[in-house]
Automatic annotation (TrEMBL), chain A:
Residues 49-227 form the FAD-binding PCMH-type domain. GO terms for molecular function: FAD binding; oxidoreductase activity. The keyword DNA repair does not apply. SUPFAM superfamilies: FAD-binding/transporter-associated domain-like, FAD-linked oxidases, C-terminal domain. It comes from Georhizobium profundi. Pfam families: FAD-oxidase_C, FAD_binding_4. Gene3D superfamilies: 3.30.465.10, 3.30.70.2740, Vanillyl-alcohol Oxidase, Chain A, domain 4. This is FAD-binding protein. Its cofactor is FAD. Coiled coil: none annotated. Keywords: FAD, Flavoprotein, Oxidoreductase.
TrEMBL record, chain B:
InterPro entries: FAD-bd_PCMH, FAD-bd_PCMH-like_sf, FAD-bd_PCMH_sub2, FAD-linked_Oxase-like_C, Oxid_FAD_bind_N. Residues 1-186 form the FAD-binding PCMH-type domain. This is Glycolate oxidase subunit GlcE. Pfam families: FAD_binding_4 (PF01565). Keywords: FAD, Flavoprotein. It comes from Georhizobium profundi. One of its GO terms (molecular function) is catalytic activity.
Length: 496, 411
């Protein structure tokens, strides 16, 4: 278990009065303090870590959120915000001395504005819920994390979620127009809106992907898009991952930006085929799904280009979807990759690193070596278009040492990603899972400056502490200036 | 006021750090410039020294297959765009060129300035602004420390997004030293669909219909009667509502026809082909009608797309203005015939549901007397000030350019 911030004994001792005070702010069922009822909240989708919170609060109004935060701020109580709890990096892991602020009651669509192509929702609305609200008019919300049926848009903001569509349509950060945020001191601020760009600092950019460390989102404005006229997918099998990777590079180099471009390696293909029977070819090392969307004439034209590029790279199977049903079948295996791997192994750890695309063969080879070193199998699904890898490390939690081995294997994979020019996390966030790896990517000065951003929002480090940063420093300490220079630079330049 | 020529001209990132560290120790306010092409935007500053990034230039990474480019902050944008064009690529957000509007020659400006000003063009609706395409940065904070953020890959949620956070900060948080951007293939061809003679209100409705269709319209602008003569060598006979389509030839043709059918209730659609279309959109991007060699105040206003025309109608009752619309009506370029009327403009923006206005051109004395950037409500202004203090505790980087100087909060 990773070390979490030391619980504040004083806060633990005051639990009873804190619960009573919170009940004054959020009446009725909105405060949960019975162990049996809090059990449902003790972990998120990173189930290897569990922790009972101090108390669970489910506010219903922005005013309540503001009062809860102001109360916690005043009384030095930590707060962990939580959406649907689908985080894969432990972003919503409770702390023993912290209020778990669950935003699930904020579940209403507030405004659908087709003329401005903007939808205003509360943060507890699911990602797919937004699309459901506008699909009758032919619109949709583009970022589509695999968990979109369950994950909340507030959580998407916290994690800057992506998905299959992000290559062409961007991540959450590119599709959010505005936020209402309550700061830890209870202040309510509005960032953006239905208009574009910020009038000052781009705080919307800082909030998106901040993993609940900067503020609590109480309202979200997103842009919606009209559904493309048509979408068709090609299923392409390759004898090696290198040739598949080259095909991806060639497609991009040809100026084609697919709506989605996903790759699976042999173990993932076999697991998925056994599970959903999508009729995937089983004699290939890599399977590519390339989806083109847009006007029909364009899609037909581009699919022909993609086919030609695939053949040039030695593809052994090429099938192009002829119906919506067939397209859905192509995707069924990919979308079920995680549960299907779950069937062949008691447990699995899903990693999330991003690499420059051209490094794929090198990274896959490295993973094979690491697999032998750590004695664990790995299956790979890969957002091929944007270089986002999801190695699934298979292990058995009941075998002593296997979880630790899986974690060590995962950390080695992420180190490799950084080494080839990539990053530690593409879309799942740092959370608690990758916290200790941050120094692989950033030096102390980089991390200090990030923590100073935190200080501007939350000087006492009360919001979601223990996540993202490997160590916490007091803001006062971070505020000191250490300047070692001081000589006049460029003394030879004439001055006025 | 600042003196004429830049005095500090570092050629390496370490020298930038040394210069800022020196300024921090000496408590010497610095004006941060690249080529100085956007120097006239913002509140006039009291700075003792100018730090020019112009000699910190050159590409540091360009991998066309990976759709990524990085350059030192002082690299001229025109040079970068030339290299991209040679590889049939571009910055999808088509950074505007403020030069002509500010009375300077076009084509000056750097990649650092591009991000610091968060430049964007008419494709903003579909493709985003500089903020949406930055992948990573290196910078020197007001503490004299070199800091990096982000990386070179598209998908990255490792830590706070300081790269985007510095977009549009106008050199007040940190001195950018290196910028890494996503680039994209250039569209094979483009065409512009034109509807003539619409009122501002009807044009807004037409643009909304088009942008909400599956026609993948890349840009939508309305050029009213008063400005139509100043585009594409005076070839627009009447007020023009223009919609840009880009992509592969057959796709553009097909979408043009579909759009014409969809917009038939607004009148017949005419077509501008590739070259003329490109010229038109570059002129929209660079605000050609108001690049008139004068210093008459020009505002850049961002409101919800459907509200731009209502805002202009309300303002016309109070002041002499000339206006045209980009971003489906949501970006309003306003030239004031007399004073800046910041108060009246901002009241009108509130009345249409919010947004913001930046005074992008005005004489220094006017810029000194009004809020050039949109003032923020108390808690937001306080948060912004705290953020500034965390990057630049002594307040030496472009002090007062975005917000009037205030005494720093106690540590």
């Amino acid at each position: 278990m990773l070390k979490m911030p030391e619980p504040d004994a004083d806060v633990l001792a005051r639990r009873k009065s804190i619960v009573a005070d919170l009940r004054d702010i959020v009446p009725g069922e909105g405060v949960v303090d019975a162990t049996s009822e809090m059990r449902a909240f003790e972990t998120d989708a990173l189930t290897a870590y569990r922790q009972m919170p101090l108390v669970v609060v489910l506010p219903e109004t922005v005013e309540q959120v503001s009062r809860v935060l102001r109360y916690c701020h005043k009384n030095g109580i930590r707060v962990v915000p939580r959406g649907s709890g689908t985080s894969l990096s432990g972003g919503a892991l409770p702390l023993a001395d912290a209020v778990l602020l669950v935003m699930s009651r904020f579940n209403r669509v507030l405004d659908i504005d087709y003329a401005n192509r903007a939808v205003v929702v509360q943060p507890g609305v699911t990602n797919l819920g937004i699309t459901h609200a506008v699909q009758d008019e032919g619109f949709y919300y583009a970022p589509d994390p695999s968990s979109q049926i369950a994950c909340s848009i507030g959580g998407n903001i916290a994690e800057n979620s992506g998905g299959v569509h992000s290559l062409k349509y961007g991540l959450t950060t590119n599709n959010v127009l505005g936020l209402e945020v309550v700061l830890i001191n209870g202040d309510k601020v509005r960032l953006g809106g239905k208009h574009l760009d910020s009038e000052g600092y781009d705080l919307l950019a800082l909030m998106t992907g901040s993993e609940g460390l900067l503020g609590v989102v109480t309202e979200v404005t997103v842009r919606i898009l009209q559904k493309p006229e048509t979408a068709r997918a090609a299923l392409i099998g390759f004898p090696t991952s290198e040739t598949a990777g080259q095909c991806v590079a060639d497609i991009i180099a040809a100026g084609i930006i697919p709506g989605g471009m996903e790759m699976m390696d042999r173990p993932a293909i076999h697991a998925a085929e056994d599970f959903v029977h999508a009729d995937y070819p089983l004699d290939v090392e890599a399977l590519l799904i390339v989806e083109l969307d847009g006007p029909e004439a364009e899609v037909d034209f581009l699919l022909a280009e993609v086919e030609a590029l695939a053949l040039r790279n030695g593809a052994t199977t090429i099938r192009v979807s002829k119906s919506e049903e067939e397209r859905a079948t192509f995707w069924a295996g990919r979308k079920a990759a995680f549960p299907s791997v779950g069937r062949i192994s008691p447990d699995y750890l899903c990693m999330d690193g991003t690499i420059p695309r051209k490094e794929l063969p090198r990274v896959l080879a490295g993973m094979r070596e690491l697999s032998e070193i750590h004695g664990l199998r790995v299956a790979n699904v890969f957002h091929a278009g944007d270089g986002n890898l999801h190695p699934l490390i298979l292990y058995d939690a009941n075998k002593p040492g296997e979880l630790a081995a899986a974690e060590a294997f995962g950390a080695d994979i992420l180190r490799l990603c950084v080494k080839v020019g990539g990053v530690l996390t593409g879309e799942h966030g740092v959370g608690v899972e990758k916290r200790e790896l941050m120094p692989e990517m950033f030096n102390e000065i980089d991390l200090d400056q990030q923590m100073r951003v935190k200080c501007a929002f939350d000087e006492k480090h009360l919001l979601n502490p223990g996540k993202v940063f490997p160590q916490l420093r007091r803001c006062a300490e971070l505020g000191r200036m250490h300047i070692h220079a001081g000589a006049m630079p460029f003394p030879d330049i004439p001055r006025f | 006021m600042t003196s004429g020529d830049p005095h500090l001209r570092p050629t390496t990132e370490d020298q930038v750090r040394d210069a800022v560290a020196w300024a921090a120790v000496e408590k010497t306010p610095l004006e941060i410039v690249g080529h100085g092409s956007k120097r006239a935007i913002g509140r006039p500053m009291q700075t003792a020294e100018t730090l020019s990034l112009a000699d910190l230039n050159g590409l540091t990474l360009y991998e066309p297959d990976e759709l990524v480019l990085a350059a030192w902050a002082g690299t001229p944008l025109v040079e970068i765009e030339k290299v991209l064009a040679e590889n049939n690529q571009r910055f999808e957000f088509e950074p505007m060129d403020y030069g002509p509007l500010l009375g300077e020659e076009p084509g000056r400006g750097t990649i650092g300035g591009m991000l610091a000003a968060n430049l964007a063009g008419p494709r903003r609706l579909k493709a985003g602004a500089a903020r949406d395409h930055v992948l990573g940065i290196r910078c020197v904070t007001g503490r004299g420390e070199i800091v990096k953020s982000g990386g070179r890959v598209v998908k990255n949620v490792t830590g706070y997004d300081l790269s985007k956070g510095l977009a549009g900060s106008w050199g007040t948080l940190a001195v950018l030293t290196e910028v890494t951007m996503k680039v994209l293939p250039r569209a094979q061809t483009e065409a512009t669909s034109v509807l003539f003679g619409l009122t501002d209100s009807d044009a807004t409705a037409a643009m909304s219909l088009a942008m909400g269709s599956s026609g993948e319209v890349a840009s939508a602008a309305h050029l009213p009667e008063s400005v139509k003569g100043r585009f594409i060598d005076g070839q627009l006979p009447r007020a023009a509502t223009v919609l840009r389509l880009e992509g592969f030839g057959p796709s553009v043709d097909y979408r043009f026809e579909r759009l014409a059918q969809l917009l038939a209730p607004f009148g017949p659609t005419e077509r501008l082909d590739d070259a003329q279309s490109r010229q038109l959109w570059q002129e929209v991007r660079d605000v050609k009608p108001f690049a008139d060699g004068t210093m008459r105040p020009v505002w850049r206003v961002s409101v919800a797309p459907m509200e731009g025309h209502a805002l202009v109608a309300a303002l016309r009752l109070k002041a002499g203005i000339d206006a045209f619309y980009d971003w489906q009506g949501g970006l309003v370029w306003l030239r004031m015939e007399a004073g800046a009327d910041a108060v009246g403009l901002r009241q009108a923006i509130r009345a249409v549901g919010g947004g913001h206005a930046t005074l992008v051109r005005a004489a220094p004395e006017l810029r000194r007397s009004v809020d050039v950037f949109q003032p923020q409500p108390g808690p937001l202004a306080a948060l912004s000030a705290r953020l500034k203090a965390e990057f630049d505790p002594i307040g030496i980087l472009n002090p007062g350019r975005m917000a009037a100087l205030k005494a720093p909060e106690p540590a």
